[in-house]
Fold this sequence. Notes:
The protein is about 70% helix and about 0% strand. By secondary structure, it is mainly α.
Amino acid sequence: MYANRAQPSATLQESVLMSMTEVHAVASLRLIVAVAKADDDLAPQERAQLEAALSTLPLGGLSVERLFAEAVDIDAQFRLLDTPQAKEHAWSAMYAMAWADGDCVPLEQVVLDHAQHALGIEDTTVTGLHRLYNEARDTVLPSSIEPIADPAKRAAEIAQDTLKYAILSAILGAFPVPGLAILTDLAVVGLQVKLVRDIGQYWGHKVDPSAAKSMLYGLGLGTGARMAVNNLAKLVPGWGSAVGATTSFAATWALGKVANEYFATGAKDDPSVLLSAFKSAEKEGKSQYESHKGEIAAKQQLQAERLQQLAEDTKSGRISQQQYQHKVSEL
């Protein structure tokens, strides 16, 4: 892998995008839904999370309702995945759907085991992904912000941090490398948790990491559905890295806005009531992405080789997920 580092990152990205087609993507989406429905009990919250994640994609004639309603012949979908890259990436998305929210339920594991065998996924790939998820679950980026009493200064700092993390989330959200893309999705969640904690501390609140994660989950962020769909979308021409960049930027931007409102009111409301405000702020975030698109593209090009190296080092075990997230947050 290291022998190719001198090559332009655009060449790598073009070759990656060629490895996934819309046929692969639709088959993979059906497999994600099959994992969610493995126990024949698609909980309302899980369905809502999937709907929110799928709504970011240009599905054309395939509706979200149809995806949920139709019976899925998973073996038929496996046969449509006719490249090694498509197989590995579909399986990674299925894994994210099953594991990102915590423990995989037994019937979901049955589907994953069958998929691993049918798609020829090596045990080392499974072990590596499981290590990344376990490390990500235990990784908390440091947050040591002093409260700011002056309203104007506090507002300026929060706005600056929100934009900074939204831009970094966009760069990570567009990172299109099969087998590694889920790593950047996990890093985005880590940045979002840090943003919530930092904003709380600007307002004088000490925010526990678990409380910050609860806010994310209440807004549909950091869920298996969101990561599975994002992980898949960024590799498909026509969906691709632009979708990953836009949705990651908008989500982080909106999170900063609603977290600021939440702590400004004394952190007394149930975070789940912020969902409608978050959806509105996401639309604003997409407009802000357009305003900063040039800056994001320039930084993405500048950091592409570094991100590729860090991802390879993490996947191979040369550095831990925690070290990866710390290094990414410093970019």
